[in-house]
Amino acid sequence: MSGTTVLTEKWPVLGRHEQAAVWLQIWTDLGRAPRTIDAYARGLAEYLVMCEREDVDPVAANRAHIAFYVRELTSRPHRRGANVVSIDSGAGLANATIQQRLVPVRLFYDFLMEEGLRESNPVGRGRYTPGRQRGGQQRGLVPRLTKLPWIPSEQQWLGILQVARAESVRNRVMLALAYDSALRREELCSLRTDDLDPAHRTLRVRAETTKNRLERVVPYSASTGVLMSAYLAHRATVSRARGPLFLSESRRNHGQPLTLWTWSKVVRRIALEAGVPRFSTHTTRHLCLTDLARMGWELHAIATFAGHRNTDSTLQYIHLSGRDLADKLARGMEHIHAWRIQMLTSADGTTAEVSR
Fold first, then answer.
1. Which of 37, 56, 173, 217 is the most exposed place for a label (fewest CB within 10 A)?
2. Which GO terms describe its molecular function (predicted)?
């Protein structure tokens, strides 16, 4: 059974629109990640359902119909309950979620234009246009809000570690690696035994498991290396076969590769028990990259470590707290203040070298 057939069974509306099914099949044939295809299918299906409900031909839809869909997204109740309200969207769906819903719709209309079925894309996108006022930046259909990534305070992190100490050796080494090597969830769960180099304490993050298909080799600490040795000895009691590094130990899936969802549930349980509900599988990556910035790493070095193709992505991850920035300002102002005072108090009116 093809991937597109599975998706049309999951969202029947896709099967009722020939162009939508063709578009999804093209992305599938191009080798896009299954999770990406699934997200595209869901986003486009929601839009097509709206078109059918409002008796709109999606091929001929105009900007007014897209605006109606955006209004529906911004007023849609949150799936976790009617009392949950997102500040940045004015309703249940966050700004980032709305942006994700619009991406497949925009790409679908790009496809229709390439096929000669439309002359323009009603969704559009923000872009730089020379000659425009305000720096030439043309706003997209929905303003994109960029929020600082959340990272735990020292007390919250200690709470997470305290709870994690009672976890299995597998869960502890996974949490340690997620922080040590700034791994994304999929990168962590996709590690294989032959990706490890214990002699040099490094691991290979294969291109096919990364978000941008960029392979990299990253180190991990000596402490994590000790924990890894303990886990490998334990893993041998579950399975001696080479392959996926982290295995399930449940009765139903004993010895099978650990899934993304299982790891998410583990982290969620730890977060709730520690009283830090905002902690997620991606928090350790934010925290690691922030700590590297605090230690004085250059931006390009952090980008290489994180596996980013450009430093713009890295800047979105690094979050220096107000306290960090205040300390930097205080240190800088202390030097300037000393220099000005010495200049005023110098007997001959000249300045002397002021140590930093």
1. 217
2. DNA binding
| Residue found under tokens 């713009």 | 312
Distance in angstroms (rounded) separating the CA atoms of residues 143 and 121: 18
Considering the domain architecture, whether residues 106 and 187 belong to the same structural domain is answered as no
Spatial neighbors of 274 by CB under 8 A, at least 6 apart, are 156, 159, 160, 162, 163
Question: Which residue range is the domain that position 51 belongs to?
Answer: 3-138
DSSP 137: E
pLDDT in tens, 250-298: 888 898 999 999 999 999 999 999 999 999 999 999 899 888 888 888 8
pLDDT above 90 for 8 = no
Q: Are 71 and 46 in contact (CB under 8 A)?
A: no
Instruction: Give yes or no: residues 209 and 108 share one domain.
Output: no
Same domain for 353 and 255?
Answer: no
Residue 174 phi, psi dihedral angles, 5° rounding: -65, -45
> What are the helix (H) ranges across 12-168?
12-15, 18-29, 34-53, 63-75, 95-114, 154-164
58 within 8 A of 51, measured Cβ to Cβ = yes
CB atoms within 10 A of CB 19: 14
Question: How many domains does the chain fold into?
Answer: 3
Tokens, residue 141: 């259909």
* Residue of 127, 121, 98, 119 lying closest to 109 (CA atoms): 121
CATH number at 262 reads 1.10.443.10
- Regarding whether 159 and 11 lie in a shared domain, the answer is no
Phi, psi of 218 (to 5 degrees): -125, 150
**DSSP structural state of residue 216:** E
Return the higher-pLDDT residue of 93 and 332: 93
Query: Is the residue at 148 inside a domain?
Result: no
Grouping H, G, I as helix, E, B as strand and the rest as coil, residue 162 is: helix
Instruction: Give yes or no: residues 265 and 338 share one domain.
Output: no
pTM of the model: 0.67
Instruction: Quote the pLDDT of residue 108.
Output: 94
If you ran DSSP here, which 8-state letter would residue 243 be given? S
